[in-house]
């Protein structure tokens, strides 16, 4: 079974959001074409779902500014602007994304003590979201991953899928994703390639 994982295609990561990824909204049309393609038996989306005052927010650390390095749970942590706070417009999936076609929305980042870039587990690898077990139970053998942002949540989700779903083949859809910096994207793609994740274009799916 082939599944599609749409990572954090939320208002908060698109222009006008609290933590916008450059051209983040441009992934929506591509994601919708993938959703409509009929190539996937299962479609899942992840959703950053932070409580107010999450420990990854710069505002939770007096004297810290967004995008400075800080510390969380004794480990280095990028300090982010408040973003994707539960039940706010910022946390909602992009309004043009065909959410009605998504089979499961996996929320993440709910523990204020640790960040969760991956859709599968927290950054400390102490707590699983349960998504890997769910996809394994569904019989998923092939997983395509895309969304926001390539150099953070998409990369970590793709790598964790490979580590946590036995025997799964993982592909990263480059044109259905955007990253925070060009350097970060290049590094993320190189790391995914090194781990054995295929780098593809949406045309490989749609015309394949």
Summarize the entry for a quick read.
By secondary structure, the protein is of the alpha/beta class. It has 5 helices and 8 strands; from the N terminus they run βαββββαβαβαβα.
Name of the CATH class: Alpha Beta
Number of strand segments? 8
CATH topology: Rossmann fold
* Radius of gyration (Å): 16 Å
What's the main sheet like? 6 strands, parallel
Number of domains: 1
Broad structural category:
alpha/beta
Please provide the ordered H/E string of secondary-structure elements. EHEEEEHEHEHEH
Total of helices: 5
Which CATH architecture is right?
3-Layer(aba) Sandwich
Characterize the structure shown.
Helices cover 24% and strands 19% of the residues. It contains 5 helices and 8 strands. The strands form 2 sheets. A 6-stranded parallel beta sheet has the order 5-2-1-6-7-8, with helices on both faces. Strands 3-4 form a two-stranded antiparallel sheet. β1, α1 and β2 form a beta-alpha-beta unit. α3 packs parallel to α4. It is globular.
